[in-house]
Design goal:
29 strands, flat, nucleotide-binding, 734 residues, ligase
């Protein structure tokens, strides 16, 4: 389904064009006339001959040309028939304003009406925006297919796709030098969803960034594919997700659900795509503007992983009752392992201000938001000393003090010198412009701004100018900055957030397409595996598990413990048992025959021992750092979940998510982002764990979930030491 004629029409017809002021049909015609739409515009009305000077015809088939876009501004009941009429006439797409579809009746007449609309559009492969939305404004094409008040705006490179009509309306009304290219109010998304618009805009000339306001993520594979198209074209994406959807039933019943909610899964995908994550509409628009004007000249992201280096060929499953051996040999060089976990480019941002207070708060916000402010090199500090006043101390943040505020030459020089430091990428300059000032005062403020503009001319795409308070970035100032290729941002914290967005490497299209492909689900048997079944599956795919035996009586448990020859754990193992600890179905550290026999009898007679329950007798694993490794496949895309804490996972809430597939190096990079990463890399004199072994284990688990079509996997804990990693507990659901 092609959206070209709908997003950039050369001719438009308004069905329901009306002479009644304030009606959708009247507004739609008035907006097209006010915008100076360059192509032919027609109205469709059974009796009217013209509206706002636009000629009207009784029906669509009476129009003198076939319009690219049809705006349908009539009651809901008429819409399916009009879509059929537009399709028969060869129109390129339609915008439907009317409400009264599935949003008011999911099972009754509203749903039936929406189904009829979808069927009509499908019959002619015709895209439809809506229903129950404000429409589309192609600002660059001067084509507002819009059912609300509209004032023509200066076009630019920023597109907005919003599942909220009001967010789109407010963006069009805002005074922030946003310079929009296209605005889409999705409505019910009956025919085209946000991912469809995103993919289409990726192919539209002049778009350099897209702001996405989402209430429903939709199809994850489609969204990942659309993000891949944006990555291919170098188009930045900023996302605001409103609310969080309910967790899938399988995830909600396990620790994973507490630390890997649906919004976190979406955020992991967005960040994998090099996108920026917003928390409110203001941030969303400032981030989209930054990604449109700013340059991210960072090394190319790592290539999409090919087939995993480790083999996924399963070994012959061990029969219940035979040892579950779980040893693996990790043979890579230790130094190479450390290098593989390196973070790549380490450039950071520079903050420039004339205020010590702004410097301190900016530094605090950078630390809170994870934006790196690297120290400047000694040579840079020396060069700055020659430009700064004696009262200023060079550093990052760079407070040049009010002594030289308004000095064009020195302002330009100090920014240029500091930005030339090899550690510096984007530059954030704080500048507040009062709305009212005397002519003499304006000279000083103009000089300060001119110095920033002069410096920015030698730093294309690297300079952001932010006011400390949003209302101190007047539209006139914002427009002037934008004219010079400088991103104007309203707000101190927003400035830090936006400069951080320029430090994130852009997405890799091939990687995102691999993520989209990983979302495909197969069919087959379903249900929870007993733990001993889960560990057979894990062992067969090279995931280390404790050596163990499956038994059904207390005497067999005693024999198994003797065969293992060391302290053992006893666990009830059943397909009906999800959380063994909650039911007292786990006994640890049993060292003698009496303890094993008594423990086995206690488990077999407990309320948790359902019919057919077995006992898993396993060797005790030496203590180490406890990590959770899990897979969720019921979110927008499949993700690997890595968390610290074992049984304390929910309380610590320290987790990172990696979209699948994920190779060991990508896993290690993610592990280093955990707040508790120091426990893995060596803290307080403790030896570091084998990160490569942990990375390979997690990568294998992710691949296993895709190969075996597993809905859910949770290994909690995985015990990691300096020379081994072992999945002690396993919960798997097909």
């Amino acid at each position: 389904m092609k959206l070209t004629r709908l997003l950039a029409p050369e001719s438009v017809a308004v069905v329901g064009a009306s002479t009644r002021p304030g009606s959708y049909g009247n507004l739609a015609v008035a907006n097209l006339v006010a915008a100076g739409f360059p192509g032919p515009v027609f109205g469709v009305h059974p009796t009217a001959t013209e509206v706002h000077g636009v000629p009207c015809f009784p029906t669509i088939k009476d129009l003198p040309v076939v319009p690219d876009a049809v705006v349908i501004a009539t009651p809901a009941a008429t819409v399916p028939g009009l879509v059929i009429e537009a399709g028969e006439h060869g129109c390129g797409g339609a915008v439907v304003f009317a409400a009264g579809f599935a949003e008011v009746s999911h099972e009754g007449s509203g749903r039936s009406l929406e189904n009829a609309l979808v069927a009509a559009a499908a019959a002619y492969d015709m895209p439809v925006c809506g229903p129950n939305g404000n429409g589309i404004v192609a600002v660059a094409a001067r084509a507002p297919l819009w059912g609300d008040a509209y004032t023509p705006r200066r076009p630019g490179p920023v597109a907005l796709i919003s599942q909220s009509g009001n967010v789109a309306v407010n963006a069009l009304l805002s005074n922030r030098a946003l310079r929009l290219h296209t605005v889409v109010s999705c409505g019910n998304q009956a025919v085209v969803d946000a991912a469809g618009y995103l993919a289409a805009l990726a192919e539209t000339g002049g778009v350099r960034s897209v702001a996405l306001y989402l209430e429903d993520e939709g199809d994850g594979a489609r969204l990942a594919t659309a993000l891949a198209a944006c990555a291919d074209q170098g188009i930045g994406v900023a996302v605001l997700k409103a609310g969080t959807s309910a967790l899938g039933a399988s995830a909600a019943a396990a620790h994973t659900g507490a630390v890997a909610g649906d919004a976190r899964v979406l955020r992991a995908l967005v960040e994998e795509a090099g996108g920026a994550w917003a928390h409110n509409p203001h941030e969303l628009l400032e981030l989209a503007k930054t990604l449109a004007y700013g340059s991210r000249r960072l090394p190319k992201p790592p290539p999409c992983p090919g087939p995993p280096a480790h083999s996924l060929r399963p070994t012959e499953p061990a029969p219940y009752g035979s040892p579950l051996t779980g040893s693996l040999v990790y043979g890579s060089d230790p130094a190479a392992r450390a290098d593989r976990g390196a973070r790549g480019d380490e450039r950071g941002a520079l903050i420039v201000t004339c205020s010590g207070g702004d410097a301190a708060v900016g530094a605090d916000e950078a630390a809170r938001l994870g934006v790196r402010l690297p120290p400047l090199a000694p040579s840079t500090l020396s060069a700055l000393t020659a430009v700064l006043p004696p009262t200023a101390t060079p550093g990052n943040p760079l407070d040049y003090t009010a002594v030289i505020f308004g000095d064009v030459r020195r302002t330009a020089d100090l920014i240029t010198i500091a930005a030339a430091d090899e550690a510096i990428g984007p530059v954030l300059v704080y500048y507040d412009r009062p709305g009212r000032m005397s002519g003499d005062a304006a000279v000083e403020w103009d000089g300060a701004l001119e110095g920033v503009i002069e410096a920015a001319s030698a730093l294309p795409g690297r300079v952001i100018v932010a006011s400390t308070l949003p209302d101190l970035m007047p539209e006139e100032t914002a427009e002037r900055l934008a004219d010079h290729g400088i991103t104007p941002v309203a707000g101190l914290t927003e400035g830090v957030l936006c400069v951080g967005a320029l430090l994130r490497p852009p997405g890799n299209g091939d990687r995102l397409r691999a993520i989209a492909a990983a979302g495909a689900r197969g069919s087959g048997e379903s249900g929870l595996l007993a733990e001993h079944e889960a560990k057979v599956l894990l062992r067969g795919h090279g995931v280390p598990v404790p050596t163990g035996l499956v038994v059904h009586t207390a005497e067999e448990a005693v024999e198994a413990a003797a065969a293992l020859g060391r302290a053992v754990a006893l666990k009830l193992s059943s397909r009906d048992l999800r959380h063994k600890t909650d039911f007292g179905a786990v006994l640890l550290g049993l060292v003698d025959e009496t303890a094993v026999r008594e423990g086995a009898n206690r488990l077999l007679t407990s309320p948790a021992a359902s019919s057919g329950a077995a006992i898993l007798v396993e060797e005790m694993v030496p203590p180490g750092v406890e990590v959770m490794v899990a897979v969720r496949r019921d979110g927008v895309v499949p993700v690997l979940v890595l968390a610290m804490g074992g049984t304390w996972v929910e309380i610590l809430d320290d987790a990172v998510l990696v979209p699948l597939p994920a190779d060991p190096e990508r896993v290690i990079e993610a592990l280093r982002r955990l707040r508790g990463a120091a426990l893995l890399t060596g803290a307080r004199g403790r030896p570091p764990v084998d990160l490569m072994a942990l990375g390979e284990l997690a990568s294998r688990v992710g691949d296993l979930s895709l190969v075996e079509n597993l809905t859910f996997v949770e290994l909690n804990p995985v015990i990691a030491t300096s020379d081994s990693v072992t999945a002690v507990d396993a919960l798997i659901e097909r």
